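agent: user wants the structure for HTH luxR-type domain-containing protein from Sphingobacterium paucimobilis HER1398. delegating to structure tool.
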Amino acid sequence: MNKQSILKEFFLNEELVEEVFNLYFDDLCRFLGYYTRDRELIEDCLQDIFVKLWEDRATLSIFHIKTYLYKSSRNRMLNVLRAQNSRLLREEIWATEEMSRTYAQECVNMEEFALFYNEAVEALPEKCKMIYQYCKDAHKSYKQVAEELQLSVKTIEGQMSIAYRKIKSHIIYKYQISDPGSLLLLLTMQGAIWAV
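agent: tool returned. relaying C-alpha cells verbatim.
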C-alpha cells in the first residue's frame, strides 16, 4: 500500500485518525513545550489541529502526515501565543490608564480644576479662544469650522495647537507639578484637551 492510499484511508477512518493522534500526541506535546509550559494550552492546540484535520479532510492534500502535524501545531501555537500577548498588552495598558485616571481624580479638586481651566481658556488670544470654543462647544471638525469661519484648515489646526499648549501650560503652572501625566490624562478625560 503506497502513502497516498494510506492517507486516503486515514481520512476515511476516524479510528485511524485517533490512532495517529495517540501515536504523535506525546512527541507533539514535547515539541510545543519549547514554546510554552502551559500543558492545557498545548493540549488544546493539538486537539484543535486534529479536529481541523478531520473537518477539512476532503480538501486537504497531505503527503507527509508527521510534517503536516508538526508544522500545523507550531503555527497554531504561535498564533495563540501572539493573540495572548496582544490581549495581555491591551489589558496592561488599560490597567495603567485606569490607575492613572483614578489617581488623577483623587488628587485633583474638580472645582479648582474647572476654575483653572476656565482661566486658561479666558486667557487665550481672542481669535484662538473663539476657534477653540467653536470647536469644543459645537463639537465640530476642523474642516467644518474652517468652512464656517472662512479660514484654512491649517489655520484652525494651528490655533487649536496653540490653545492646547497654552491651556496645558496654565494648568500645570497652577498645580505646580513636575510630572503632569495624570493631570493630562484628567484633562483628556474631561474633554478639555483632545491632543497634546
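agent: one observation worth passing along. The CA atoms of residues 84 and 175 lie 40 Å apart.
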